[in-house]
Q: What sequence folds into this?
């Protein structure tokens, strides 16, 4: 046949057989949207006319559905402070960046894992059928398991997957891999891995997870609250469970109560302004030094709580020696010493010490100070300081390392916490895993070290391991081309993978740099169940499907079930359960617990599902819960799960590790890059904190961008003095650069940021100008092209993203004609 | 809606159009509608799926022998079509051209370029920019009216460019053969609909197309949609 005839014979429409008007409308809509028309009636019963109550990482909401289309939303009426970004949930479903079909990179389709890898990211994908795509994935997994072994598959997939208890694709991936012989996994996270590494030695738990001293306890008792590297107005907007944003009410209450507040932060936060608080613009990277300086005052002026130190802590003497200049570095940690490092005046440091002990004080830390080189030192120094202040376990006093996420000061209802019904399980051994094949689990942020050094030794938390020789990765529910540091180094290292599979609902940079791309459904396109309030457990929500999956998207569960079938483990993977069966299981487990404890009355599942939501009362006794109160009251009977049962100011276990990058008590260690170093390579500190209006990179592809972007790019906040010195005005396009990379951004000149510091929030979608250039310009503003990829220390091997120096200049070159996210209408 | 019966523009370089000059007006209009349907069908195909090797080869030929001949026959000047062919030839031969065109297609139309796209849905250009908005509902209703739906291997939104063009092609053919009195009116409505957003779509192609071919093809489509013609209800004339 003549090829031109072939072109003219392509057919995109076909005749409809049914004459029913409803069926007609249904069949013409793709991806089964028409089938959702039937749901319109159910929607009307659940919310208002045509509304379905459901939820997201940004909150619970009613989705308005018309003709099988998701046409609008409104927040749940009992949300304390609905998130402005909520509208982005609708954008995500209908984003032009949706992955529509299974796609395979052309070179990979032709040559498989032997294909060249330089063209990854170039966009040369070929649409394939689901059958073909799944055969390719299953075939490669089988081949590697048989020819190599489980150490060749990296399934340490990480990220903020979609919402709900049953839809966690990372659990599904782990389960499938374990059933088929295993894989290399990852531990901890990019948020607080240094804290998670050190806190078990110090207080016997992660501490930053779970309920914290309640908001009410603070409102009624606290006289001074100190937010140290913590922004409660920002990350509290999001949650794995459905957030209800109770922290905003807390702030209103604190303001009414007249609680004095101090914010120690390089940025003058909105929360600081709201409370009319004092802003101490500490030099980034020196928070440990500031804490040590305050500790020195408490020690030398005998202000510290000697009874608490005696009864509830271990190892204070060695720490006191260190403060006094008799420790390992022989440097006395005087306020003047701390002032030189932190640029907080010595008299202010003295004043802080007095303020902390003279009234009921709650010390609050975020996680930014531990996302730095030697980040383990910050949480340790912070808890040590709180122990010396001595108010740990008192109402409204002590310390908290998580008032910024999940509203963890909310009081809890008596309802059981919902939990996934599926587990990842344990590895089904199909072949032995010899030690020389490397670690089964790596610290999540060390992925590039692993790719660059297969077989190389590394240390982690007191043990020695080898990096495995991985050849394939399967990524679900995450975007490593956003969250990992030093993008250019990562891009090169990624070529180690022979096969990269990405399962997502949108074309993230990670999907663009993959070989096989599988289109997943969004949360709105499947049923699930979730709580409102991670801690409060204020309600259970039947997260009903809003619309059918668009294009050829399938739910993660369906995709993994189809793969399990190809890999011969379908029965073991699904246990014969549908997604609705799993939702029923989640509810049944909670109901069984509630019935046994007689804690709350739960109706039968069908009644719950029909109703859509069950709300729970908060018992009065839970409103004033105080963390560590039991321990303080009786540290012997209620000992902490540490080696000594006490707060460990000094750790013998860490001493045994002999790490010079993580000494056995909280210590000041100079970071690899910081503003105070003698010959700093670049003059400005980069603060790549969590974005104000997104959840990491999620929603960056949506209309929410209009709230904040500058010159079509990620905003970069710069102090007026630094801007003036560079001829930069608000609205200018600027270039940020260092030896690792470069990116463009839109300038916001402000005195709400400390001189010498620029803010470029993480999560802007990576947009390389030229994938063949090793140091190519990111045209949009991905902060992680600039950040270093080094472990915090051998203890936690966490990310050090906040240890980063850069320079900024006004961009005077020809602006790239292609700008990310330009709406087509404006192109 | 009044249907205006008129001949298509007679292009200096369009032999097919020139050949219709002596036919009765209604027949000429019907023939024009058929020619237009051919041209629209080719455009629908260009934006519906990436091009395969044989199709690229056919597109590289001189205008009158090539795959774009129908567009010329409908009245788009040959010089403009030559420019599109030149862009295609500039991509090299064989697999290199196929690969470059495929990359461009994925980046522009399938979302792989992130927002560096020329989003091929009417909803992206009307209202809030989200897909599956009111235009999708309107097109769903139109398709239902004509007893059609997207082919099983083309599970696209009803307001996808190719679906709109495919329906336009179908209504033009029915107008040409007189099988449905409402076809011409429907075709006129689809022309108006497409004229409302294709110019912006074509600008996005020009801004973002790394191959140059799709920018040119979108330009040809824009040109085609804006030719000075009207469509006859062919059946009513007989």
A:
């Amino acid at each position: 046949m003549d090829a031109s005839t072939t072109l003219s014979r392509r057919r995109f429409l076909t005749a409809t057989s049914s004459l029913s008007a409803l069926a007609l409308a249904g069949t013409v809509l793709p991806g089964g949207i028409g089938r959702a028309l039937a749901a319109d009636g159910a929607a009307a019963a659940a919310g208002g006319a045509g509304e379905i109550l459901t939820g997201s990482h940004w909150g619970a909401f009613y989705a308005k559905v018309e003709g099988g289309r998701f046409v609008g939303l409104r927040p749940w009426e009992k949300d304390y402070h609905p998130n402005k970004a909520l509208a982005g949930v609708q954008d995500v479903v209908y984003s032009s960046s949706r992955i529509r079909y299974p796609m395979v990179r052309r070179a990979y389709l032709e040559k498989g894992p032997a294909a060249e890898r330089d063209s990854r990211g170039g966009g040369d994908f070929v649409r394939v059928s689901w059958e073909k795509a799944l055969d390719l994935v299953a075939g490669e997994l089988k081949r590697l398991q048989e020819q190599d072994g489980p150490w060749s598959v990296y399934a340490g997939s990480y990220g903020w997957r979609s919402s709900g208890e049953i839809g966690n694709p990372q659990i599904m991936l782990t389960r499938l891999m374990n059933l088929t012989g295993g894989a290399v996994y990852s531990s901890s996270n990019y948020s607080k891995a240094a804290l998670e590494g050190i806190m078990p030695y110090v207080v016997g738990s992660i501490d930053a997870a779970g309920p914290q001293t309640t908001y009410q306890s603070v409102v009624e008792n606290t006289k001074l609250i100190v937010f140290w590297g913590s922004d409660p107005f920002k990350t509290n907007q999001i949650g794995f469970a459905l957030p209800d944003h109770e922290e905003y009410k807390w702030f209103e209450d604190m303001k009414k109560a007249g609680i004095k507040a101090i914010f120690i932060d390089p940025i003058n936060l909105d929360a600081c302004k709201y409370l009319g608080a004092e802003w101490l613009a500490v030099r980034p990277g020196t928070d440990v030094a500031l804490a040590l300086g305050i500790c020195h005052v408490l020690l030398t002026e005998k202000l510290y709580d000697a009874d608490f130190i005696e009864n509830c802590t271990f190892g204070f003497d060695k720490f006191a020696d260190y403060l006094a200049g008799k420790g390992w570095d022989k440097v006395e940690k005087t306020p003047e010493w701390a002032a030189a490092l932190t640029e907080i005046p010595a008299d202010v440091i003295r004043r802080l010490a007095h303020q902390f002990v003279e009234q009921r004080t709650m010390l609050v830390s975020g996680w930014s100070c531990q996302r730095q080189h030697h980040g383990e030192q910050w949480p340790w120094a912070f808890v040590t300081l709180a122990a010396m202040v001595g108010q740990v376990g008192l109402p409204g006093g002590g310390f908290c390392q998580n008032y910024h996420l999940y509203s963890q000061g909310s009081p809890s209802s008596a309802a059981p916490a919902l939990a996934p019904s599926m587990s990842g399980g344990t590895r089904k051994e199909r072949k032995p895993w010899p030690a020389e094949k490397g670690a089964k689990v790596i610290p999540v942020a060390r992925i590039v070290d692993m790719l660059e050094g297969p077989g190389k030794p590394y240390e982690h938390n007191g043990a020695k391991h080898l990096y495995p020789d991985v050849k394939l990765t399967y990524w679900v529910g995450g975007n490593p081309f956003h969250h990992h540091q030093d993008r250019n180094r990562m891009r090169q290292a990624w070529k180690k993978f022979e096969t990269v599979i990405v399962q997502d609902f949108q074309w993230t940079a990670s999907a663009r740099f993959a070989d096989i791309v599988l289109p997943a459904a969004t949360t709105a396109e499947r049923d699930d169940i979730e709580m409102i309030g991670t801690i409060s457990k204020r309600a259970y929500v039947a997260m009903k499907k809003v619309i059918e999956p668009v294009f050829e998207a399938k739910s993660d569960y369906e995709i993994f079930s189809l793969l399990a079938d190809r890999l011969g483990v379908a029965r073991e993977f699904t246990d014969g359960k549908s997604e609705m069966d799993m939702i029923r299981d989640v509810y049944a487990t909670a109901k069984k617990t509630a019935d046994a404890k007689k804690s709350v009355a739960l109706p039968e599942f069908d009644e719950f599902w029909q109703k859509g939501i069950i709300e729970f009362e908060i018992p009065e006794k839970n409103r004033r819960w105080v963390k560590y109160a039991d321990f303080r009251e009786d540290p012997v009977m209620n000992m902490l799960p540490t080696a000594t049962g006490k707060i460990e100011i000094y750790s013998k276990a860490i001493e045994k590790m002999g790490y010079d990058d993580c000494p056995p008590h909280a210590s000041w260690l100079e970071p690899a890059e910081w503003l105070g170093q003698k010959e700093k390579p670049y003059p400005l500190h980069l603060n790549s904190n969590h974005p104000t209006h997104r959840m990491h990179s999620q929603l960056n592809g949506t209309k929410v961008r209009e709230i904040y972007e500058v010159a079509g790019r990620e905003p970069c906040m710069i102090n007026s003095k630094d801007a003036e010195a560079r001829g930069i005005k608000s609205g200018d396009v600027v270039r940020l650069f260092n030896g690792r990379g470069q990116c463009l951004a839109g300038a916001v000149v402000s005195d709400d940021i400390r001189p010498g510091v620029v803010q470029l929030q993480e999560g802007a979608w990576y947009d390389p100008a030229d994938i063949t250039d090793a140091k190519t310009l990111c045209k949009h503003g991905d902060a992680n092209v600039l950040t270093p990829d080094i472990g915090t220390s051998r203890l936690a091997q966490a990310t050090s993203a906040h240890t980063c120096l850069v320079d900024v200049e006004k961009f005077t070159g020809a602006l790239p004609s292609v700008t990310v996210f330009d709406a087509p209408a404006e192109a | 809606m009044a249907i205006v019966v008129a001949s298509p523009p007679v292009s200096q370089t369009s032999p097919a159009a020139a050949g219709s000059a002596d036919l009765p007006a209604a027949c000429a209009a019907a023939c024009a509608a058929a020619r237009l349907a051919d041209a629209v069908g080719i455009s629908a195909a260009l934006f519906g799926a990436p091009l395969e090797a044989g199709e690229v080869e056919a597109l590289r030929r001189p205008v009158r022998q090539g795959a774009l001949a129908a567009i010329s026959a409908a009245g788009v000047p040959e010089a403009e079509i030559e420019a599109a062919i030149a862009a295609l030839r500039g991509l090299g031969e064989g697999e290199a051209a196929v690969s470059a065109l495929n990359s461009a297609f994925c980046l522009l139309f399938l979302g792989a370029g992130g927002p560096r796209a020329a989003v091929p849905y009417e909803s992206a250009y009307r209202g809030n920019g989200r897909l599956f908005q009111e235009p999708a509902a309107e097109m769903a209703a139109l398709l239902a009216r004509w007893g059609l739906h997207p082919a099983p291997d083309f599970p696209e939104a009803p307001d996808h460019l190719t679906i709109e063009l495919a329906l336009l092609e179908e209504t033009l053919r029915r107008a040409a053969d007189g099988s449905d009195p409402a076809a011409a009116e429907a075709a006129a409505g689809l022309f108006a609909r497409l004229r409302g957003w294709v110019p912006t779509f074509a600008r996005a192609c020009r801004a973002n197309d790394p191959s140059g071919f799709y920018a040119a093809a979108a330009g040809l489509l824009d040109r085609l949609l804006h030719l000075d013609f009207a469509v006859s209800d062919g059946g009513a004339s007989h």
